[in-house]
């Protein structure tokens, strides 16, 4: 299909279907002008059969759930992002944050919602102790919700590896946990794999400065690897610096297959199987 001229060209289609397990379709439309239907059609043409559309606040979570109910290519994750949790707390205290968190169970019960997230801790953008405490409070509420609904927990972890694991280890975890936009080294990858988590690799792995992340990918068993765009952010090489979208996921998939010395078609099938296991759902269609 034809794309608007200001967007990166579509890569060669993958030899087998994969799933973009973490993207933000609404933000991509706002940032790049690529409407949701166009984005999904372009992704399908590139071999990306479906996506998990991830909420970061109540409006985007509602939009993701509505889209998942309307389009069989989409599944949804619903949450209050850790930085949004901190902002809500700073604006209205714990009562305001709890009021927003109280709306998530109804969203998590909607058809097509397969995950609670992205939630977790972000010490890069939220540095004050009270804001971080609010994030931890929100994180625990999301963990409890994922357990209650038997949904996958999708974790945002930025500069907070030790505390993310500490909170996850402090009580009973949900049965399925995805480390979104994995940013640790090989040692942290092993810690996550030992706990049964899936590790989702973004376009960052293609960047020249991402040597430790590539070592983490090499340390991750093939059946624990997921791939994501996090669109409209983190566009992989060779399109770095341009708007990202799910149709660009093949750049990261091909890079990882080469890095891991894996047959590309087999790697695609493995990533799809991993994604469907991680989210306890199937996208149907041909392999």
TrEMBL record:
Keyword annotations from UniProtKB, A to Z: Hydrolase, Metal-binding
CDD domains xref list: TatD_DNAse (cd01310)
InterPro entries: DNase_TatD-rel_CS, Metal_Hydrolase, TatD-like, TatD/YcfH-like
Keyword check for Cell cycle: no
GO molecular function: hydrolase activity
Record-linked PANTHER family: D-AMINOACYL-TRNA DEACYLASE
Protein name (record): TatD family hydrolase
Lineage: Bacteria, Bacillati, Actinomycetota, Actinomycetes, Propionibacteriales
